[in-house]
Amino acid sequence: FGLVERNQEIGEETLFNVFGKAAVKILHTFNSQGISNMLLAFVYVDAKHSRLFQETGRVISGINLGSFKPQELSNVLWSFAKSGEADPELFRVLGNHIVARR
Question: pTM for this structure?
């Protein structure tokens, strides 16, 4: 888990912090699987990046959720829950989408 430890070679930041800053800038280019996998990766290594989760929630809330497979939706929800990040608007949008799919 050296990826979440501070590293002198990257300005005393963690590698996941650097990844998170970069991802925030290009979130609009991610597909549903990319978003899902990215959030899972941050949670699996216990890397905290509130801005990334906030921006990801905003992006997801504004895109066509029909492109998300059920597992990807599950991963997004689980990642937010496990990270401790709350995004009531995202949860509302995802909840409405899930109910409408049934």
Answer: 0.85
Query: 94-99: long-range contacts (C-beta < 8 A, 24 or more apart)?
Result: 94/60, 94/65, 97/65, 97/73, 98/73
Distance CA 102, CA 80 (A): 23
How many angstroms separate the CA atoms of 88 and 69, rounded? 21
Nearest to 24 by CA among 65, 68, 64, 55: 55
User: Up-side HSE of residue 60: CA atoms within 13 Å toward CB?
Assistant: 30
Answer whether 60's CB lies under 8 Å from 35's CB: yes
| Model pLDDT for residues 49-64, shown as the tens digit of each residue | 999 999 999 999 999 9
How large is the C-alpha radius of gyration of the chain?
A: 14
75-95: pLDDT as tens digits: 999 999 999 999 999 999 999
Say how many CA atoms lie within 13 Å of 40 toward its Cβ. Answer: 12
Residue with tokens 């990807």: 72
